[in-house]
Amino acid sequence: MRYGLLLLIFIVSCHDAPPPELNVNLPKSKVSPKNLVITISGDNKIYIQSKEASAVHLDSLLKQAMDSMRDQPLDTTVVVINADSAAAYGVVFNVMKIAKHYRGKVVTTVQGH
């Protein structure tokens, strides 16, 4: 019973004080990610930055486009894939695979009719 009374006094006397404010200096980023936009139409045509890309040369065209967007060789390029809902999943997946292979950070959106 004594310990219960001590516990009750302890709980009542300890109130929820807000945590102390911490001033933290966060580093400023000098580089913003660069977005490479790839569009895949409903008839599976692929466009890199609004220019139609041949499926046969897709690997080299995508690598070239990603490399041209980097300031430094190890920079990350954000690849935004806008795919029509009628586009074949295999085509979208292939573009994602190639972009990831060349160190792209992939974001995919699907747009319906």
Could you characterize what this model shows?
The chain is an alpha/beta fold and 113 residues long. It has helices spanning 2-13, 58-69, 89-101; strands spanning 34-40, 46-48, 51-53, 77-84, 104-111. The protein has a five-stranded mixed beta sheet, covered by helices on one side. The protein starts with a helix and ends with a strand. The model has no long low-confidence stretch (mean pLDDT 82).
In short:
This protein has 113 residues and is α/β, with parallel strands linked by helices. Helix content is 33%, strand content 26%.
Contiguous runs where pLDDT drops below 50 for at least 5 residues: none
CATH topology: Nucleotidyltransferase, domain 5
How would a textbook summarize the main sheet? 5 strands, mixed
Separation of the first and last Cα atoms: 71 Å
Helix content: 25-40%
Radius of gyration of CA atoms, rounded to a whole number: 26 Å
Q: Describe the global form.
A: elongated
- Please indicate the count of domains: 1
Estimate what percentage of residues fall within beta strands. 25-35%
CATH architecture: 2-Layer Sandwich
N-to-C SSE series? Answer: HEEEHEHE
CATH class: Alpha Beta
* Class inferred from helices and paired strands: alpha/beta
What brief labels describe this structure?
alpha/beta, 33% helix, Nucleotidyltransferase, domain 5, five-stranded mixed β-sheet
